[in-house]
TrEMBL record:
Record pathway: Carbohydrate degradation
Membership in a protein family: Belongs to the ribulose-phosphate 3-epimerase family.
Gene designation: rpe
Listed name of the protein: Ribulose-phosphate 3-epimerase
Top EC class of this enzyme: isomerase
């Protein structure tokens, strides 16, 4: 398994984002958290910011929408050039229609679930998606502690993906550190979002290398 490390710019310096993007150039994708103060109690930025980041980023953008009504808003993020657009199952009226639209525009389609949301109803929809995001904290803020109680969902997803033969990336987001990345990788994740452990602890490039090494050393099946 090749692990993907996607640093989240949520804890980066918003006044110097071009520089902050350059500091993570050895990662795989840039994770961009979009929050609307409705779906989650926090506010970040929107489509125009994604468009601007896309122009200067050395890496493709992995957009995580924590917003109400993704049926209306998600396609716009694909239209401005996001590599992947992941929306929350809890907020979507018609997840399959959104995913089809995203793919039609040319983005990878992702579906996310909060820690308390059952993944089983979504397993049969896997062919419609390129990635599934299992939140390992309550969405809304960086710097929270990893919830190991979410790991059984990764097991179910990994089993379903293997059985289907599909190439669906399994992503975790929240509280990922050199320690917790091992737990998530062994549970079946292959794509790891890390905010504070990349930007708030030493140099981002060495943090990315350490996370990569920890994921590679995990005993995956
Ligand atoms: O989506 C979110 C939070 O809702 C994340 O992408 C955070 O940005 C992760 O931050 P850390 O938990 O790694 O500090
Ligand atoms: Co996120």
């Amino acid at each position: 398994m090749t692990a993907r490390i996607n640093p989240s710019i949520l804890t980066a310096d918003f006044a110097n984002l071009e520089h902050e993007l350059d500091r993570i150039a050895t990662a795989d994708l840039v994770h961009v958290d979009i929050m609307d103060n409705h779906f989650v109690p926090n506010l970040t930025f929107g489509q125009r910011m994604v468009e601007s980041l896309q122009r200067v980023s050395p890496l493709p953008l992995d957009v995580h929408l924590m917003i109400d009504d993704p049926d209306r808003w998600a396609p716009g993020y694909a239209e401005v050039g996001a590599f992947s657009v992941t929306f929350h199952a809890e907020a979507a009226a018609d997840p399959v229609a959104i995913a089809r639209r995203l793919r039609q525009i040319g983005a990878r389609a992702g579906i996310a679930v909060k820690p308390g949301t059952d993944i089983r109803p979504y397993l049969e929809l896997l062919p419609e998606f390129d990635q599934v995001l299992v939140m390992t904290v309550e969405p809304g803020f960086g710097g929270q502690s990893f919830m190991e109680s979410t790991m059984p969902k990764l097991g179910l997803l990994r089993e379903a993906v293997s059985a289907s033969g599909l190439d669906v990336w399994l992503q975790v987001d929240g509280g990922i550190t050199e320690q917790t990345i091992t737990i998530a990788a062994e549970a079946g994740a292959d794509t790891f979002v890390a905010g504070s452990s990349v930007y708030n602890v030493g140099e981002p490039a060495s943090q990315i290398a350490a996370l990569r090494a920890a994921a590679a050393a995990a005993h995956t099946h």
